[in-house]
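INFO worker-7 received task bundle
INFO bundle size: 2
INFO processing item 0
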Amino acid sequence: IMVVPTPRDERNALVLAAAALAGVDRVFAIGGAQAVAALAYGTDTIPQVDKIVGPGNAYVAAAKRRVFGTVGIDMIAGPSEVLVIADASANPDWVAMDLFAQAEHDEMAQSILLSPDADLIAGVFDSIARLLPEQPRKQVIAASLKNRGALIQVRNMAEACQIANQIAPEHLELAVTDAVPLLEQIRHAGAIFIGHFSSESLGDYCAGPNHVLPTSGSARFSSPLGVYDFQKRSSIIEISASGAQNLGSIASVLARGEGLTAHARAAELRCEK
C-alpha cells in the first residue's frame, strides 16, 4: 500500500511507475498527517496496516511518533542534513552545489562543510556567493544556509571525523583524495559518499541504497531503511526432558532471586520425577 499526495489533483506518472516496479498494488491519493492516521487506524476505504515507513514533513513526523505502538514505524525523520569533509583537492563549485542541494529542501535543512584547508573554504564561500543568485530556490537556500549552514576550518582530518561522529549526519560526503583512512574513522552516518564524484544528489535518486535515512543525530543508533525493516523474527524454543532438568534448576534460582515463585515452580515441576 502506498499513500501519495496529489496537489491540484495531479497524479505523477513517474511516482506511479516506480510504485508498479516496486510491487505496490494499491495507491491512495492522500498525504500528510491524515494519511498516517488513516494507515494506523484504518478508514472505510483505507485498510489498517502493520507498519508505516517513509519520510515527510514535520507534521508527518509528529503523526508517526503519535501512532507508534499502534503500528510500527521506520524512524522519526527530522530536517535533512549534509556534512561535507573536504581537502584541498575538492572543487569549490561542486562543494557549494552539494550544500545547495541539501539547503533547497527547506529552511531548516542543515548544510555544513569541514575542511583543514583555508583556501578551499574561501573558494567555497566565493562559489556560494556567485552561484546562489541563479538558483530557482535561492530564497529557501539562503535562509537554510543562514539558519543552519556553516563553513568550518578544522585543525586536521582527524578532528573533522570526530566532529562528524558527534553530529552523526544523515548524509556524509568525503570529498578528499584518499577517503579510505577517513572512512575507517567514521562510526555514525546515515549514508557515506566517497570521493569527489559521489554527489549526495545521486544517492537521493539513483545510486542504489535506500535514501530514507536517520536524521537529527539518530544515526548513532539507527540505520537506513532497508529490507530488514520489512521483516520480523520469532524466537523458537523446544526443550527436551533432559534439557528441562538442566535448565530447570537454573531458572528456579533466577526466578526465586527475582521473587517470582510461580516462575520457579513452573520450572521445578518439570524437574520432578
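INFO item 0 finished
INFO processing item 1
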Amino acid sequence: MKENKYTISDVANHLGVSRSTVSKAINNAPGVSPEVRKKILTFVEEVGYSPNTLARGLSKGRINIIALIVGDARNPFYSDLSFYIQKALNENGYMVMVFNTEYEEKREVEFINLTERFNFAGLILISAQSSDLKNVLKELKVPVVLVNRTFDDFNGDAVFLDNFQGGYMAAMHLMELGHKRIGFVAGHITSSSVKQRLNGYLQVLKNYYLPHSENDIRMGDLKMETGYNIAKDIIKDLKNQPSAFVLANDITALGFMQCCKENDVNIPEMISIVSFDDIVYASLKDIELTTVSQHVQEMGEQAARLMLKKLDDSSSKSEIIVIEPNLIIRNTTGPFKSDRFANSKFR
C-alpha cells in the first residue's frame, strides 16, 4: 500500500460522496449501502488514506475534535444528551471534548474562546446561560450548534424543545386535576428555555383566571440543593402556599422531593409537582416523577446531524429544529384535596 497524503475531503470529492459517508464507511457505521461502502474502502486502501482523526484535521489547520459545552455534567439530562451527541459524531470520525461550566457565564465565555484558540472543528453549546453570548459566537470561525437554548436574533443552527408548550402542558395538567393555585420554581430567568416554560405556565393561569402572586414564582438555579432549599422555605408556611408546582427541571424536583420527604410532606397528597427532562431517575419506584420529556436521544442526534452538515458544507442553510414535548404522568401529581392537611402536623 503506497503512502499518500489524502484527507477525508479528498476521498469524498474523488468519489462524489459526503465526508460523513466516508467516515461512516471507514468506521463501519450504519447508513451506507454495501456498494458505496465497498467502493470507499477499496479506494482508501489503494491511496493509503489513514483515518487518523487528529492528523486529518491538522492537515487543514484544525483538529477533528468538537467542543461540547454543558451547564452541569453531573445532571443526567446533560450526560445523556452528551452521550447521544458524542456517539453520532464518533461514528462519523469526530472526537468530542466536554467542558463543564457549572452554570457560570464567565467560564462559558472562556471555553468558547478556547474553541477558536485551539482550532477545534466545531462547537456545540448546550443550555447557554446568557443571550449576551450571541456576540461572542458571531466572532467564531467554526460551525456552532445551540442545543436546548436559542437567542432571538441567532441565525445559526439550533435544536431545542418547544418550551412554551411544555410549560403550558405541565400547568394545564395540574389545573385539570383541580389545583387552583399553582406555583413555579424557575432556574436562571435569563435562560431562554426557562423563560419560555415560565411563559407557558403563566398563559394557563391567564386563560383560566387562576390566582397567583409574585411569591408563587421562586427563582434560583437548576441544582438539586436549590430545589431542596426552596421546598424548605415553602414548608415553613405550607398551608398558605400553592397546592402544586411546576419545576424547571428534574434535578431541582429531586431536591424538592427530598426535603418534602424529610419533613413529612406527602407527595402528591399534600402537594403535587411536575418538572422537565425525564432523566433516568424519574421513573424509579421511589420517585415516579411526573415530567415533561425532552426526547433527549432525538435532540442529541439532531444536534450532531446539524454539526456534521455544517462540517461537510459550511455554506449550507442553517436549520432550527423544534422538538415537541411529551408529558409523562407518574405519581407526583394527584387531584386537589381541600382537606389535604387533615391528618398531618400541618393541619
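INFO item 1 finished
INFO post-check item 1: The CA atoms of residues 283 and 289 lie 6 Å apart.
INFO post-check item 1: The domain at 163-293 is CATH 3.40.50.2300 (Rossmann fold).
INFO worker-7 idle
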